[in-house]
Amino acid sequence: MGKYEEINNYICKPKINDSVKDSIIILCGGGPAPGMNTVVFSAAKTFLSARYRVIGLHGGYSGLFSENPRTEEIDFLKADAYFNRGGSYLQMSRFKPTDEDFEKRFNLGLFRDNGIKLLITVGGDDTASTANRIAKFLEGHHYPIRNIHIPKTIDNDLPLPDNAPTFGFNSAKDEGAHLARTVYEDARTSGNWLIISAMGRSAGHLALGIGEATHCPMTIIPEMFNKAPISLERIVRLAISAILKRKLLGIPYGTVVVAEGVFHDLDPEEIKAAGVSMTYDEHGHPELGKISKAVLFNDILDKEFKKIGLKVKTRPVEIGYDVRCQDPVAYDLSYCSELAMGAFELFSRGETGCMVYVDAAGKARPLYLKDLQGPDGKIPPRRVSIEGGIAQNYYKNLCHYITPSDYEAAKALVPDPEAYDFKKILNW
Q1: CATH 3.40.50.450 in the chain, residue ranges
Q2: Is the pTM of this model over 0.70?
Q3: How far is CA 106 from the centre of its chain?
Q4: Is 173-324+398-426 a domain of CATH 1.20.140.10?
Q5: Percentage of residues in the chain with pLDDT exceeding 90?
Q6: Fold designation for 3-167+328-372
Q7: Can you tell me whether residue 28 is helix, strand or coil?
Q8: Can you name the residues that pair with 121 across neighbouring β-strands?
Q9: For residue 302, which of 293, 321, 315, 283 has the smallest C-alpha distance?
Q10: What dihedral angle (degrees, nearest 10) is formed by the CA atoms of 7, 8, 9, 10?
Q11: 421 is annotated as an active-site residue
């Protein structure tokens, strides 16, 4: 037996004569985020050190409702090799079990045959909502299996206290800002405008983070429309407001960051009426998930430029899938390790049906899933606090847009400058 095998056996595996061989099982749901592997394998290391057997479940929740789930034993050497890598070693899925799945296909034998005492789920709001359903199911059937959820999403939209981030957000923002800085330099060098779409279906945290970090002259997020209904016309005018203001300042370039969520909040008929070439589902709704939001918005802007006679050259850039599987930055490496150790701490205290929250001092405490759910049983997303300091400071100090003092000069560019007044567009 080699040196590393000896170490692995000593650190990782229950002794042959151990009378108790309790196990835990870990699954990952939704889409990837930087730190997935850090959470999974930090949890593995922590539980292995406590002499638990650790099982990885591939396929997300689908594995819990399959007769032949794909499982994998996780030992120390595997955990040590993958904990700091991007992506997800455990294959993920967006499978959502139905009520019938719970009643007829929940694989209790998987837990019973492997002596599993704890299910750790790793994911975002959808995964957390399903974790809440599992908690209720296990409790209702008196199954002696605890479950703890670890919150992840690059969208940062899970309702954690004190504005604590979800893991993956800071790494995604870091890479997104890196890409946006490069794009901004391209805009400056070429004298053009680059239209950047950033992921964030329900909230604009990532878009705002990228916009603020790169001093982008306009970032458009769904939370901005807190005093005026969201519409395609308002979104277009916000972008043009920044372009006009910079023209007045003698700056013929810039970037506009737009959160993909603004398009999901729009009336589908508006997008259809804009004449953008795209596919539609059987109900006649535009299939936004299949297209680049940056291309969509760029096409709409280009039509508007021609309509009002504004000579501006724009190019679309998408930031999304390219930030999900990067290696985590140091913040998430540490944070994810703390979340994983926090899961062990909560398990040791007998907690279940909860989400791990680690405060700024590193102390773990439970957030009970049943307390977080809305009337529909789902966990509502945390949106950007548009009245908060982060958003207000950015929009007051770093953005460029038309104000009443610009009206006279802007008449040389457009006949109705007031239509592009930032505060009037939003009714702020």
Answers
A1: 3-167+328-372
A2: yes
A3: 28
A4: no
A5: 70
A6: Rossmann fold (3.40.50)
A7: strand
A8: 27, 149
A9: 315
A10: 50
A11: no
